[in-house]
Amino acid sequence: MKIIGLVLIILIAILQYRIWWGEGSYREINQLEQQIAEQTKINSQLKVQNSDLQKEIQALRKNPELLEEIAREKLGLIKPNETFYRIIPKK
């Protein structure tokens, strides 16, 4: 009887170890759920960013004047026979 009780206690201890600290434990599952939540949040932010970029692409395709305006602003492009003046503000 004592041997059966000892075997059962050892078996329960092994199972408890696996539940709390082993592979697939509660702690590991909680960490994975947190990672999933963080990645879901990042994905939703990226979806919004992709949507904004898609809208900008459509606007650029439909309106060549907008494309010219952005090129002039970001790249500093000027047309032939134009004079470019750069005004440096005082600090």
UniProtKB/TrEMBL annotation:
InterPro entries: Cell_div_FtsB (IPR023081), FtsL/DivIC (IPR007060). Pfam families: DivIC. It is found in: Cell inner membrane. Residues 29-63 form a coiled coil. Residues 22-91 are periplasmic. It is a single-pass type II membrane protein. It comes from the Bacteria. The keyword Membrane applies. Residues 1-3 are cytoplasmic. Keywords: Cell cycle, Cell division, Cell inner membrane, Cell membrane, Coiled coil, Membrane, Transmembrane, Transmembrane helix. Belongs to the FtsB family. Essential cell division protein. May link together the upstream cell division proteins, which are predominantly cytoplasmic, with the downstream cell division proteins, which are predominantly periplasmic. Part of a complex composed of FtsB, FtsL and FtsQ. This is Cell division protein FtsB. The gene is ftsB.
